[in-house]
Amino acid sequence: MTSAQEMIVYGLIVTLVGMGVVFLVLIGLSYMLDVLKLFSKAGTAEKKSEVKIDNIEEPAEAVSFSAAEEDEDEEELIAVISAAVAAFMGRGRNLTIRSIKRIEDGTPAWAKIGRQEQMLNRL
Amino acid sequence: MSLVDALYDFFLTMGFSAITWQEIVMILISFVLIYLALVKGFEPLLLLPIAFGMLLANLPLAGLNAEPVYQIVADPVTGEHTHKMIDAGGLLYWLYRGVKLGIYPPLIFLGVGAMTDFGPLIANPRSILLGAAAQLGIFTTFLGALALNFIPGLGFNIPEAASIGIIGGADGPTAIYLTAKLAPHLLGPIAVAAYSYMALVPLIQPPIMKALTTKAEREIVMEQLRPVSRLERIVFPVLVTLVVSLVLPAAASLIGMLMFGNLLREAAMMQSTLNRLMKTAEGELMNIVVIFLGTTVGATANGELFLSPRTLAIIFLGLAAFSGGTAGGVIFGKIMCKMTGGKVNPLIGSAGVSAVPMAARVSQRVGQEANPSNFLLMHAMGPNVAGVIGSAVAAGVLLSMCNF
Fold it and tell me: Is A48 contained in some domain?
């Protein structure tokens, strides 16, 4: 394989086979991950309850929930918010969170940009 | 012997008497690289060792790269011929064995695996395809390098072209691993090009990303990723190791170590004693290997080989490789955007070139420029870590098809 033409032809073969194999392997993996997801439904639930317990125990003893309309998916978010509030208020207070509502973001554009810059600096 | 003769003899043992112009130029280039690493912050973790290795290798008469010298002697008693070591060889020669024999890059991958969270990839398995599409740059550059054979005096043979192409994988250890096996004489320029462009990802990618997407596409906000279970995290590395190594045994050492590192990371959450292994893999072991790898790869940049038009061609092709990979990822991202009815932001495609986590940050930044409340970082991490697997697979293909 000495001439430039021959090398280009072989190069094209390598390219086709190469991209083909890369795609095949990764598409295969992608579908296997889908199958894996089906098997691990039970595992997901288990993990969530663990997270909840950890977060409640740490900040204060008397944090209780009576959240109204949150889905199960948001339990983790509630735990995080309660922990943050408890840490902010300090120890030794009884803290009851009745509801958590998402409010419209009324931040002016310049403040948003400033916040983003702060975050990007830390990325 | 007169005093003058003695002084003259001593002068002959000094580096000044033996230095060549190539060595002077290489030492100056190493100064520039040290400057880029320290002042400009170009991947200092690797570029600084590479630059200093380059400096060490080009010191005249120091012999840091010298091979050991053996003499065949007849044993006076038995009359058998045996090897006797005359000279033990230089420090960098021995450290370089780890590159030459393909030991350091998989060890680095062990640490990378221990540091990488594959969660975003497991949560959104389709994003793995973007990691495949972004490998396009590797192969277009491979063809580009072969096309240079039409220019007289600037030819690359197939193993050399494959090593240049792998720069487009934007993955240092993979590039070094493949080049050390296929074209070790090009290791210096290829490593320098790969790591410099990786540092330049925030400059190279955004113009390509913006040129290939509309503002409406860049503004797409993606759904939040689902949480990933412990079971999935544990099974993932084992699964990837099995699938990739069975399809492509040549990629087994890179992928195997990457996934072993990741398994250590996830398993450490279950068995806390494994924390020790994970800490070592991602910490001290990796740091030690980075020092060995960087200095010895830099030390392959020998003046006579490095200072040639081929090096310039490699630097140029490397840029083409990065651009090709970015474009491949973004275009495939657009296809996925169309197919999912606008749920995928094509910007995460560019993160499919590995360069973890820099490429994902670039996707985040460009996405946020278009829509300030857009957070693509975690979505881009999926293709980003898939890119590491993708480029290791591509390296395996090149290794098995271009090794002659």
Answer: yes
